[in-house]
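FIELD: query
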Amino acid sequence: MERPSWDEYFLEMLHTIKKRSTCVRRQVAAVIVKDKRIVATGYNGAPTGLFHCGQVGCLREQRSIPSGEQHELCRGIHAEQNAIIQSALHGVSVKDSTIYITHSPCVLCAKMIINSGIERVVYQGEYPDSLSQELLKEAGIIVDRKE
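FIELD: result
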């Protein structure tokens, strides 16, 4: 029996987590791991207690906003942000951890990743935001794309 590597193990979990997403355009998931233990998970969607885009419509679709632009014009919060916020809410440090994501982070998430002390980003799909990659590199964050 061949066991998955740790990266494969945590990346596979993303496909279950993203099913909780309430975004009508793209389902994204994140898992923060420290010492091979899950610290927090997150998926994209409206903040707790607010109506989801599936209920009230997608503002980005209504305004024809392309992916990777004007992140602030959205009801939802990104998966990486949700995972970092969950860690903070429960008083768990993410310093020196790894974040696994279904897609490369946007620039807003990259800045949160940098300031939260996460040291490694592992992602699968591309998100159209080249500035995020530049900032992560400048900050010395290890970035690995896995298929």
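FIELD: remark
Residues 6-17 form the longest helix (12 residues).
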